[in-house]
Automatic annotation (TrEMBL):
It comes from the Bacteria. The chain holds residues 593 to 847 of 856 of the full protein. Residues 1-255 form the EAL domain. It comes from Roseospira marina. This is EAL domain-containing protein.
């Protein structure tokens, strides 16, 4: 079978699912959000990560269908957790470069998911990478405004790895910056990375944006981020991306 055919069959079988990586709020020490991360979960094998299938899905024109599935999963589960009183909890969904370049379609998809699944728009965030946003700032501004008008949040993902003009950044109706894990990795050993991390957190505060640090793996990194008054952390120290039932179990523990 060709890969394209296998992916079509997998879509029909609902083998593309969202896993959820928790985001810990440092002021309250509670899980206040998750990032939905795509997985291909075949009936008879281990889950496959997005690095392996997203590029192929883009090439074969299947990315919209897969991302719609992830968005639906994200909205459905998050709506459930909030309805069960396990929240308030939000969910962040990644937007691919290709989706970003067709804003009408993207907004249609988001509206459809929100309308049919009953999630509060404020509980949804969309993640655009810094390079996607900055390669086409006009389009980014339009897309982000469309989300903003609906009350949907917008994060810049992998912040610090691209080339951001601060004047452009300021014009975007953003809600959050996500510090790329390459800076978080060495905050306790590399003075430059510590300075960059601290500067991004301070800038977020100045622009009235939440800041979430990604890739937090150690207690020392967490202590540094607390000292800098970073808002949220995400990383293996808290948990990996988990299947929805496991994330729900974590929420029930009242973390
Ligand atoms: O989960 P992980 O470990 O392997 O994710 C790898 C990359 O895939 C991340 O950069 C993430 O942004 C991207 N990714 C994960 N899920 C999705 C998705 O649903 N849509 C898109 N476009 N990218 C995703
Ligand atoms: O969208 P983004 O590129 O930010 O996706 C997050 C990616 O980072 C996923 O591939 C996820 O599995 C990975 N990740 C999440 N937490 C950690 C961590 O603590 N350490 C490392 N090395 N990778 C992580
Ligand atoms: Mn992301
Ligand atoms: Na990221």
């Amino acid at each position: 079978l060709t890969m394209r055919h296998r992916m079509r069959v997998a879509l029909e079988r609902n083998e593309f699912r969202a896993y959820f990586q928790p985001q810990l709020d440092l002021a309250s020490n509670r899980i206040v959000g998750t990032e939905a991360l795509a997985r291909w979960v075949p009936e008879d094998g281990p889950p496959v990560g997005p690095g392996e299938f997203i590029p192929i899905a883009e090439e074969y024109g299947l990315i919209d269908a897969i991302c719609l599935r992830i968005l639906e999963d994200a909205c459905r589960w998050t709506q459930r957790w909030n309805a069960l009183g396990l929240g308030p909890i939000s969910v962040a969904v990644n937007i691919s470069g290709r989706q970003f370049h067709d804003p009408e379609r993207l907004i249609g998809t988001v509206d459809h998911a929100l309308n049919t699944l009953g999630l509060e728009p404020a509980a949804l965030e969309l993640e655009l990478t810094e390079s996607t946003a900055m390669n086409d700032p006009e389009n980014a501004s339009t897309v982000i405004r469309m989300f903003h008008e609906r009350g949907v949040g917008c994060c810049i993902d992998d912040f610090g790895t691209g080339y951001s003009s601060l004047s452009v950044l300021k014009r975007f109706a953003l809600t959050k910056l996500k510090v790329d894990r390459s800076f978080v990795c060495d905050v306790t050993t590399d003075a430059n990375d510590a300075a960059i991390c601290g500067a991004i957190i301070a800038m977020g505060r100045a622009l009235n944006l939440k800041v979430c640090a990604e890739g937090v793996e150690t207690e020392d990194q967490l202590a540094f981020l607390r000292a800098q008054a970073c808002d949220q952390v995400q990383g293996f120290l808290i948990a990996r991306a988990l299947p929805p039932d496991d994330l729900e179990a974590l929420l029930r523990q009242g973390v």
